[in-house]
Amino acid sequence: MSDVADRLAAALGSLVGVPCKRSLTVSSLKLSFDFSQRAKGRVYIWIDPPWRLVCDGRFVTGSYDCPEWDGIEDPEVNRPLWKAWCGLCDPLNDASLVAAIIGHDFPDLRLQFTQGYEVQTFGNDGNDMWWYYRDRLTGECFEASAAGIVRELGQPAEG
Question: Is the dihedral of CA 114, 94, 107, 54 positive or negative?
């Protein structure tokens, strides 16, 4: 493993046993961890599509199930669909991380949680970022894409 991969594995390992809160921004998934020092959490993992949520090996939902919003003239039509879709991800709220596994050939990420839930990322051939890990206290950030994993050290987040 490279130094960057070792650092990321250690950072993800520090979250084992820590509960998370989930939020959805269109079809992107944000998982925030460790609320002991920050109201928004110490760390978050932002996952862009494609991703899927499974429970005990059974598909629950994924990024491509996100209801369409672009061009919708009457949001009340889609609001119940949005709420229902978000509800499928609700079991991640307060679920504790059991394991974080990074792929060997590609930086796909599997996050295993209590009660058998697992978030699986799988990249595409694009040049865009697939997912990233950010520590709000230190500013440390790991970005994963088809090119691999890059570590950056930015400014700590305020608040």
Answer: positive
Whether the Cβ atoms of residue 2 and residue 150 lie closer than 8 Å to each other:
no
Instruction: State the residue for tokens 């061009």.
Output: 71
Ramachandran assignment for 73, one of left (phi > 0), alpha (psi -120 to 50 degrees), beta (any other): alpha
Select the more confidently predicted residue: 1 or 144: 144
d(CA 32, CA 158): 16
* Spatial separation of the C-alpha atoms in residues 134 and 143, rounded to whole Å: 9
pTM (two decimals): 0.91
Max Cα distance, the chain (Å): 51
Mapped onto helix, strand or coil, the DSSP state of residue 153 is: strand
Nearest to 45 by CA among 89, 110, 90, 115: 110
Task: Please write the tens of the pLDDT for every residue from 34-74.
Answer: 988 778 888 999 999 999 999 999 999 999 999 887 667 77
In the predicted model, what is the mean pLDDT of the chain?
A: 89
